[in-house]
């Protein structure tokens, strides 16, 4: 672990009563790390490889934090809504918390009724990641987190070595590179970055007036448990159509709870292409998202309720939105979906690129 300047908080897990064994190793510590380029500033913690703040100016030059989160690392260790974390080994849902791979049936640890969500009760968002590299100076400042997921963790087969690199590029650009290498057994891998964005500022209220464009002509319908039916359907004529930019509030009332759906992105999976654009007219902030993944989960924070966040602000439903690029949910149980299986020696590669700007 890199030496952390005094202005950063370095918090021993022991202070939270979370230690498992010796704290002698630097990797057994949880810290807060900053990357800064001009007036673009981000902070992270190695608990869950989490983004804890993204500060950038609005059209008047006033800085604001545009991701939901907490005041302390300790609050992240008790988080139940995945604020800013890397989720996995398999993001999203797997039906019945089970699947069959190469003739072997695997029973996972359910944590949402009979299903498994975001890797189980203790997924990648609830573990300590090692700080493999930390460079907060020069042309491309970056931080790299790594984690070794053991064979059988939450029921998943095979050991996996995982890393995520956050790098500041160009003018207000954030690159997120997630990798996972399967060791001795084939296993599903589907990582996602689970930040809740509010371009008006994390404490500005709801995101219903934000304008969204999603570059997807199709989506994967779900049942009442938010498990995909296996079908792929056109967004045309449905509330899921964001091919043309429009405000969230103009269509959200056509759905019972709000948006929580996977989109089938247009273009060629494996190649970096535009997935979504979010605009906040009041602040002028714009976020463009690119990815090499086949899908993106659009979630409008429907189930946030009385969550005490930064500066004592209390987040309610629709306080933030998630645009989680990913493989399709429950792909292990739908052969017609793009495979998320990684075989021994293979490396899963997931790239996201955020480009932020301001419009007058």
How would you describe this protein?
This protein has 360 residues and is mostly beta strands. The protein is built from 1 helix and 29 strands. The strands form 8 sheets. The chain has a 9-stranded antiparallel β-sheet, with no helix packed on it. A hairpin with a 5-residue loop joins strand 25 and strand 26. Mean pLDDT is 92; it is low at 1-27.
Feature tags:
360 residues; mainly beta; globular; EC 5.1.3.3; aldose 1-epimerase activity; GH-type_carb-bd
Characterize the main sheet. 9 strands, antiparallel
Q: Specify Rg, calculated over alpha carbons.
A: 19 Å
How far apart the termini lie comes to: 41 Å
Strand order of the largest sheet: 11-12-13-14-29-23-22-17-20
Amount of beta strand:
35-45%
Helix content range of the residues, please? Answer: under 10%
Shape: globular
DSSP summary: helix tally:
1
Unreliable stretches covering 5 or more consecutive residues: 1-27
Structural class determined from secondary elements: mainly beta
* SSE series: EEEEEHEEEEEEEEEEEEEEEEEEEEEEEE
Q: What would the average pLDDT be, to the nearest integer?
A: 92
How many strands in all? Answer: 29
């Amino acid at each position: 672990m890199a030496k952390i300047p005094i202005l950063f908080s370095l918090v021993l897990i022991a202070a939270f009563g979370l230690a498992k064994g010796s704290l002698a190793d630097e990797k057994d510590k949880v810290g807060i790390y900053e990357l800064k380029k001009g007036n673009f500033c981000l902070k992270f913690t190695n608990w869950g490889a989490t983004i804890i703040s993204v500060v950038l100016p609005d059209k008047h030059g006033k800085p604001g934090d545009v991701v939901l989160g907490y005041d302390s690392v300790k609050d992240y260790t008790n988080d139940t809504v995945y604020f800013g974390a890397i989720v996995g080994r398999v993001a999203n849902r797997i039906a019945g918390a089970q699947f069959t791979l190469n003739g072997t049936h695997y029973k996972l640890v359910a944590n949402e009724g009979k299903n498994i969500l975001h890797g189980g009760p203790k997924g990648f968002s609830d573990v300590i990641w090692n700080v493999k590299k930390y460079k907060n100076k020069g042309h491309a400042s970056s931080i790299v987190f790594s984690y070794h997921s053991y064979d059988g963790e939450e029921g998943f087969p095979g050991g996996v070595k995982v890393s995520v690199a956050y790098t500041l590029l160009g003018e207000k650009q954030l690159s997120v590179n997630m990798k996972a290498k399967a060791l001795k057994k084939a296993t599903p891998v589907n990582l996602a970055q689970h930040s809740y964005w509010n371009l008006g500022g994390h404490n500005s209220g709801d995101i219903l007036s934000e304008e969204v464009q999603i570059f997807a002509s199709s989506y994967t319908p779900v049942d009442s448990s938010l498990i995909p039916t296996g079908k792929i359907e056109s967004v045309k004529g449905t509330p899921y159509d964001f091919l043309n930019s429009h405000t969230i509030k103009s269509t959200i009332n056509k759905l019972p709870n709000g948006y929580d759906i996977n989109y089938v992105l247009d273009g060629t999976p494996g190649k970096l292409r535009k997935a979504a654009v979010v605009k906040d007219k009041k602040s002028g902030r714009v976020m463009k998202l690119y990815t090499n993944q086949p899908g993106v989960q659009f979630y409008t924070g429907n189930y946030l309720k009385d969550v005490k966040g930064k500066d004592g602000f209390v987040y309610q439903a629709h306080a933030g939105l998630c645009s989680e690029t990913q493989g399709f949910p429950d792909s292990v149980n739908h052969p017609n979906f793009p495979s998320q299986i990684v075989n021994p020696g293979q490396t899963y590669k997931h790239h996201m690129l955020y480009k932020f700007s301001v419009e007058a």
